[in-house]
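Regression test attached.
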Amino acid sequence: MKIHEYQARELLASYGVPVPPGKVACSAEEAASIAEEIGLPVVIKAQVLVGGRGKAGGVKVAHSLEEAREAADKIFKLTIKDIPVEAVLVAKAVDIQKEYYLSVTVDRSNKKAVCIVSASGGVDIEELAVKEPEKILKKQIDPLLGPDKNTLRKYLSAAFPPALLDQALEALLNLYRLLVEKDCSLVEINPYAQIEGSTLIAADAKINFDDNGLPKHAEVEALRTAEEYSREEIEAKEAGLSFVSLEGDIGCIVNGAGLAMATMDLIKLFGGQPANFLDVGGSSSPQKVLTALQILTRNKKLKAILINIFGGITRCDDIARGILIARDQIDLPVPLVIRLIGTNEKEGRALLEQAGLEAASEMTDAVKKVIEKAQAGV
Amino acid sequence: MGILIDENTRVLVQGITGRDGSFHAASMLEYGTKVVGGVTPGKGGQEVHGLPVFDSVADGVRETGAGCSVIFVPARFATAALREAADGGIGLIVCITEGIPVLEMLGNYQYVREKGARLIGPNCPGLISPGKSKVGIMPGHIHKPGEIGVISRSGTLTYEVVYNLTLKGLGQSTCIGIGGDPVIGSGYIDLLGMFEKDPDTRGVVIIGEIGGEEEEQAAEYIKSSISKPVVAFISGRTAPPGKRMGHAGAIISGGKGTAEAKVKAFEQAGVPVADRPDQIPELLKEKLGSQG
């Protein structure tokens, strides 16, 4: 899960990491009054979860209240990568002398949390990692022993001058504490800015959370913004389905994430375009199939639907029941191709046959057939 | 022979009194697995399917001589269950549970290793040595005893591949679902090394997916250390970047973890990558044939 910069700033501040004074505003008027309160100049930043807001004109500096109002007004009219701007952060513009980079995240390959620092902050760190990898310094943290202060101090001294070392170390330890306590997948400060008086401050912040950790942290779940997921994706999540919408016209309902991806790939391989990823999960009840079909059929571009089930925990007869209930309750506007195999396959097929529906047993056959149906419907 | 489990493997089921634990304990027994007991703290002394239930893994190991445990407890109890299994002297821990936070797994991974135990999973279907033992949730009947090892990050996609192998007469020595999470106990490299040494395994199928760099690392390892034929399949070629495709580990981020990179790495290591699951048996037969 992602959160907005203004939320990440508040969380960092609550963990003792200094941030410039600032507040979130939902109108140009509000932005101007916050600017008055915290003092000029201010930087006004669009609060959207997608990257590239600076290039899109979503970040502006204002030196007067009038400028602040105008800048905010312009930003509120922006749509950045299809996301309309609904909030801006108004923060005190600080005089930055040097930009550093500081983050903690999970290193999948080494199975440890890892600190990343650079004395060349402010830029896209992934780009820097490719072009000048020697400018990025990494240090793993033992998950059972936790961070060791002396080791980290030595590590940080390669990027920070002695006068800034104590501040950087304290911030890094706080970042790690935040990562672990809130089950984050990334806590990043970029730029980590040196301002007057040799003070380090988080001029921008990004925090991502591990979805698996959310059930442990109601206070984090409460930070969720509607922007990250479409209405369909949220509805699917509530029904226990895993759903991602795509550009194509062939709807997919599959059990298991790996098979769901493989089904999409096969559709593409044979010249079709998948409209979505949808994993109904294990032990799928008939109700889940109904919800899945309801979500899919709202897509106006849809030309055909493929249900691909390899029963393990999922029982084919449950899936068949779901299909029959759906057929009674909703008007399926497009052809349906079904592939059923595995646990209780016979029972499932019998149910479908009684209702005049047939099911393929091979995945390749079913995929070819659904593409034919979709193309015939053009 | 196969690897990790056989007809003599004695298995404890952690969470046996729960809905999933109880159901799959019965299914494993039916397959012929030597399930010797279950563990649910506070329910010691009860019986499930005629099997004794113990309060702790240590009790269960002492009373039954179990060397393997399979974990079905809910995510919020999984870390405690994993560590208890390692403390109790279990050598092979299979964690089916889905939804364990990654940061907990970092500690668990190291903890289990330090105790000298091997972990499979979490968020996996378990493993099976067909005809001998099944420790997990896969449908047993699609498997057939034979000489092909299968290592997969997926569940149902593994069934799809195994079904195709069986259909074309290629039985399996051991099939392992290693799990769809970013941090898992045993990876491709650990298991490839075991299959390489297993005299009854002639070839290996790897079923990977987008996210992480484990497939690329496996390809490097195959190039340097594996003499047996390997065939791969990668799912998620059509997945968009930045979206989690069901599995917590299946996400393309920061330009890393793409299907293209994985396919390329395997091909450079001399590992053919199938476009479709039903092409895997043919590719494998070609590789096996060319090796005599």
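Expected vs. actual: identical. The CA atoms of residues 13 and 237 of chain A lie 31 Å apart.
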